[in-house]
Structures are given as C-alpha cells and as structure tokens.
Records
---
Amino acid sequence: MSLDAMVGLIVLTIVLSIAGVWAIEATNKRDYQIAAEQQRTMSEAFSKYLKDNYAVVLASAGPTTPVQVTVAMLQNTNYLPAGFSSTNSFGQTLVGLARKPNPNQLEAIVVTTGGQAIPELGIRAIAEHLGGPGGFISKLQAGVIEGVRGGWQVTLSNYGVNPGAGHTASALFLMDGDLANDYLYRNAVPGHPEYNRMNTHFDVGGNNINNAGAITASGNVTTTSDVAARNVTATGETTTGGWFRTKGDTGWYSEKWGGGIYQSDPSFVRIVNDKGLATGGTISAGQVISTGTISSSGRLITQEYVSVGGQGVEGQLCGDVTLMAKSSNGTLLSCENVNGTMKWAATKAKFSEYISGSCQGPGNWVVKQCFLADLSWATCSLSGATAVGQDELGYITRQATGWYLNASRASWAGVFFWQCQR
C-alpha cells in the first residue's frame, strides 16, 4: 500500500469517528428532548387530574405518605390517551406523587423511577427543556430533587421515594384546589389571584420597595424612620411622641364643623373662620386685645388701675345706664336716667357715716360724722331726721334725693361735722 493511500485511510477513519460522535450526541439530544416532552405531557395530565379530584386526593394524602397516580390511572380516567407510554426512552417509569404538607394544601411532583440512569449532562438537559418546573436528581445530591439552575429544591424523603441519581422530575404545587407552582407571578393570571399572593411574611432584606401605588394594610404600619406622603388619612386616633408640624400656613382643621387652629404670620395663632374659643378653665395671657365687646357674667377684677378711654360730655345724651366714661378733664361720668332722659352725669360719692354721740344740749342736736370721699356732690343719708334745709354757711343743702355737701364751696376733703334736728 502506498503512503498516499495510508494517509487517506487514516483521515477517513478520523472523519468517520468524529461523525459517529456527532451522530451519537445528536441522538442523545433528541432523546433528551423527547423525554422532556413526554414528562411535560404527563405533568399537564396529572395537574388536570388533581384539579378535578382535589378533595379525594387531599383526604388520602399525608405529609410523607403521598397519593400515587400512575399513567394507567390517567389513561383510565381519560387524562392521557391509551397509546401514551408509561416509560421514557431510557426505560424510566413516570409517576405522579401528591402529598399534604398543610391542611387544604397539596404539593405535587412527577418523577421518574427505575430504568437506565441518565448521565448528569442528560438529566440537566431534560430539566432545561422542561423550564421552571423542571428538576433532576444529581449524583452530587441523591436525596433531593434540584430545580433547573437551582430554582427550587424538594426533599425526596417527603414523598417516600428515592429513585437515585440520573432521574428527572417536574414540580407542581396546588393551593385550595387550583393548580399553581411555588413562584410569585409578576403578571396577573385570569381566574387565579392566588398566583400573585404571598403565603408568608415578605422580607426584602433591608431593600427598598419603589414606585408603589396605594398600600393597604389591615394591621399596623411600623417604621423607625420617616414617612413621607402627600396626604395621610386615618379612621382612628393619630398619636405621636413628638410635634405635629405644619410647613405652610396651615394647622388643625375640623372637617365636620369648619373650625380649627392655624398660623399664617409670625405674631398670632388664629382660629379658622373666626370660630369662638370656649373653656371652663382659665385663660392666661400677657395681654388681651379685643376689637369688639368683652362680656363677663362675673366681676372684672384688677390689681392695677382701670383705664377708661371713652369720653362723654356731662349733661349730653347717652344710651345705656350701664355705661361709664370720662369728661375731657378726667371726671368720671356715668349714664343716668334723669327724669326719663339718659344723660351723662358726674358720679356722686357717698359719705361714710356713723353717729358719734348722743343727744346733746338744748334742741336735742345729734352730731353726725361724715367722711368726704372727694369734692363732688355726695350723699349723707339721714334716716329719721328732720331737715333744717341748709346750714348757716351753705355747705349742706337738702335735695330730693338726700342731703348733699356743696363741694363747690368747700376747699378741702376729709372729716366734716354738721348737726341736724331730731
């Protein structure tokens, strides 16, 4: 044989070997894909069976004693066609298992048992073809089913089986009779609101929840930091250990009665819509300013002077007997009813009097001691006495309303002694 022939034979052998390897790999890939499609069909049929027979399966399943559903059972109930094979191309038997981890909840899987162990790359390839529910039993962890790319994990002892490494599985999870898996869906699934519902506490590990719309809670909302919002509505009491602060010309407002308290300038805290401020207690202030009437049903008490700013003219008309004023020279005026006409009049100060002696001398004169309060006209009442009309100096005169000291003729104030006849 020539050298050229030998070289040609060697190259042909190598090409045939490579082609053989490629053919085997292609066949294996096809076998893996076919096994995945067969397992997916079995899983879909098992899911429908569980939905239709949920109560029966739930009553029979236990936490570690699952209900077993075979291909033959699914064929007999028309969930699989009669010609569907119960084994895959590797001789492994497909079986459905459903256990009850919690009341009213089923957790289900489809798993392969027996037959030829599929190589590690093969079981991972089959799981990839199955997508999210796909899983496999690896020789690295023979006691668990590992989800594709580590997406989930199931302990085989919970299902009472241990097929060994080289087998595949699909995970199905059932809640309240509806088929679901153990994922929180990003999008709504018509007729399945539970797919978007958490079944346990949601912990985001200190990360933010951004771009949320309305947040509705039936329990407390607790934070150790600030809460920023445009409006906060509470149907119960609002309590704080610090200040309630407003950043604008606002404050507290009564939605029902239209009143409240606010501040719109640096000087005054104001009442909304000029509502009244009522209290049965004490109002303490450094200064009280009123642009209207101040009314009191009790006494007005002061520890200092009373400043009367209103001025009147003695003898001119006034409208209310309760009024007091001052004249231009400071005389205190009161509004009096004089013969049916209201006029300003100078206030008369009464004498303080008492009898300081008994009847003395001829004519039975009695000494009266009167203390003069000021130099205005003043009354000195003489009950039971007979008036003499006027004393000889003209200091005392008798008028309709009583006895008066004519202060215009007196140049002093103090004690004044006079006599009257009994």
---
Amino acid sequence: MLREFDYENLPIVEIVNEIIIDAIKKGASDVHFDPYENKLKVRIRIDGELEDYAIVPNALKKSVTQRIKIIANMNITESRLPQDGAIKNSLEGVNLDLRVSSLPLKDGEKIVIRILDYSMSTKGLETLGFSQKNLEKVQKIISVPNGIILVTGATGTGKTTTVYSILQKLNTLNRNLVTVEDPIEMGIEGVNQLQVMPDIGLTFSIALRSILRQDPDIIMIGEIRDDETAQIAVRASITGHLVLSTLHTNNSLNTIERLLDMEVERYLLGSALAGIVSQRLARRLCPKCREKRAATDYEKSIFKKVLKTDINEMYVVHQEGCPECTRGYKGRIAIQEVLIMNQHIRDAIVNNVRKDELRALVYGKSDVTTILEDGLTKIVDGITTFDEILRVIDLETDFVDEDTMSLKKALIGKETETKEKPLEVLEDNIEILDI
C-alpha cells in the first residue's frame, strides 16, 4: 500500500522530513528516489529488500530532489555530475546520520539516502550472530599481537558493523588505535580517526604511511581498494602492528586469491595474514508468526550431506506475516565464516600450491565452518529459512572452482559426470547433485 501525501497543501520540507523519519521508524536501511519521465518513485529497503513507498507528482520531482541536496550540503546548481553528501542532524527527536548520493539519469537525478545505524556496533561481538565456535575463533584472532585481520563480504553485508565491534573490543587505555576511513562512519572515543581526502592528495596509501610514524599499536583501514594499500597494509602488519581492514570478496579462499592478485608478495602474505571473517546478511524469521512444516526430500538431503544431520521439519515464514514484521521476516542475521590461519595454509601460500590443494587446506584441514554450514545451522535453530540461505549464498560462485570442480564435488566431495553441464535454478539441481 503506497503512502499518500497531501502534495497540494504540505510544504516540500515537511514531505521530505516525513519520508525520512517514516523510513527510519520502519527500520529501512536505504531510501531511493527514482526519477521517471512523469513522476518520482520513492522506494525503501527493509531487511535487504526494496519495496515501493510513495509516488511524487512530476511537478514536485525537482523540488524534492533539491530539498534533499540542500540538507545534505550538496551543490543544487550542479545536476550533471554525481555528488555525495551527508545529513547529521536531529529531526522530531530522531538523531539522523545519513549518507546521500546523487546520480544524473535520463529523466532526472536519482537520490539514494543510506540510513546509518551503529547500535549493533556498540552492543559487542556477542550480539552479531556468531555461533559459539565462530565467536571463540574471532576472539582468538583479535588477541594476536600483530598481523592483518580481514572482514570480507559484498557491499551492505555488515562488514563495517563487525569492524567497529572489533575496534570497540580492542579499544583499551594502553593501546594507540588509529583508523583511516572514507568516510568516518562512527566516532569512537579514544580512537584516532583520520578522514581520507583524495581531492587534496590524502589517499589511503599516503595516510597509512603517515600513520606508521604515529607509534600505532592497532591500525584500522576502512577498505583495501587498490594494490598499493594492500601492500602497505600487509607490510605494516609484519612490523609489529595489528591491522584491521575490509575487502570485497566472497569467502576465505577468494580473499587469499584476491590479495595475491593485488601483487602482495607470497612470503609476506603467508606470515602476515592472521585471520579472515567472511559474512553475508540473511533475513531473520519473525519469532511471533513463524511456523513449521515438514522438510522436503531435497532439503533433508542437503542437511544430511553438508551438516551430517537428519531433519524432519523446519521453520518457514507465515505468508501473510503479522503486524510486527514484513512478510514473515523481521531484521537480519549475519551468516559467517571464520578462518584462523595455520602453518599448513601459510606454507601453501608461500609455496604457490595449486588452487585445489589450497582449497582442501582451507576447507578440509582448518576446522572452518563454511558460510553454507553456518547458514544451515541457523535454519535448524529457527533463525532464518532455507529459501533465504539459498538466496544469499551463490553455491556455484562461492563453492565451485570452475576449472576443476563441480557443485557436487564442492558440497559432497564426490566426482561427477556433469562437469560441463550448466546449472539451472537451484530447485532443479537435485538431479545433478544425486541427493
């Protein structure tokens, strides 16, 4: 049901304020203002899913766009180039911390407002959805005196929340913590935070070189974006510093390969890398209206092969949902994979072993719980659903070496004769998997 506004009588200021406040109250992470030839569509993203919110008449399209740019301190006279801005204010008793981006399109400027919520970061690592086993691994990783720790995943998978939670844990009086970020997402008392400003030449790599002369104990790099930053970060970690950063990769194996692609020397990476936390976000089942159903033969087979456990039923969404949720889901939960580096993996990196051998060491001899295994465990616990895990995990991309492995070999450890056969939708893979 679209939200209706009295566009003829309400001022633009009130309309924009109401859209932002209502989106925050609904728990949205983003607000999209999409320009069309004869209207401006407003959509909000709740629990990772975009849904229509309102339609702004064409006559007010430019006024709404300009109002947002004004409060975000953006140039309202420039509509031909992309711009970035921020809104930090208090509105109707709600503290706003928003990031605003504009993009010139054929029918006008598209505005996206990202709503930043750091409440999870301040609650501690224990609240981020880690299993007990993975939580103990993370605590062990961050206790090392030096090395590089990476939190990986796609955009919007909660990497920043995890990084800030780790920083809060490491922030003690006897340590000098320095961060280099773009932008600074959240101010932390006791942490020296540096804002990257490429326009004046203050890049990640230049800032990182200066930080090393500031006697740091722990360095946090907002994101490793290029080869030079990766190389400096790794070198910093082997000179007695603990380095924490993020990277856009899918899992532990992909992270190692990506760093090598960024021309980090193998002998340095082998000794510097302390651990990798890879994660995704899945929608959390509403505890008020979830219901159980019998598991299908396909679902039973997946759980048997991956978790070595038998299940007969599982929780699913209530199709209509309830007043406290959105179509059966309420909030999101992190699905994680935590790798602690061991000597076997370090030696394999240094000695440039084949990819399939490195995969076997990472997922066979390191006691790592894969993202898939962690997701299936959360299904058993009634936290999320089977459909949701299959939505956020790309089995082919994440668990298949396209050169030497098939989906069946990656999941079950058996050879298959269907190596060259393209995979169709996952529901049809039962025949390919032989399960």
---
Amino acid sequence: MGLLRGMARTAVVAGTATAVSNRVSRRQADRWQQQEYAQQAEYAQQQATYAAPPPPPAPAPAGTGGSDVTAELERLAGLRNQGVLSDEEFAAAKAKLLGL
C-alpha cells in the first residue's frame, strides 16, 4: 500500500502544479494582451492627432491694427475722389474693412 499511496500523492502534487502553472500562464497572457491593446489604442490616437491638419488661423478682428485700417480707408477715399470707385463701391469696401 505504501507504493500506491506515494504514487497517488505524486499525481495530486503534479496535477496541482500543472493547474497552477496553467492559470499563471493564462493570467500573464491576458495582461500582455491588455497592454498590447492599450498601446495600440494610444498609437492610433497619436496617429490621428498627427494626421489631422492644423486648424486654420483665426481671422484678425476687424478694426485692429489702427494705422493699417486708417491707411486703407484713406486709399479707398483717394480712389473714390479720383472716380475709380463709385460711392456704393466705396461704402461696401468701407463696411467690409470695418467688419460691419
């Protein structure tokens, strides 16, 4: 009976060790897979960020630049005085320049 008992004990220990080893291997494989998915998602997000064109620059608000607006108004007034622009064209250009 001693031999049979020793063989049974060895079988139980070997079976338990195999089960524990398989469980550890599965758990580690799951962790690696989760890390890989996270890295792929992060990489895809970075690529999407780099692939998107930068937004166009915001237009400068009308009326800023002071002397530029004044100089342009003077130029338009000169063109109107020379007869190049009609009063309606001058008014439209002035409204566009002032953002009205």
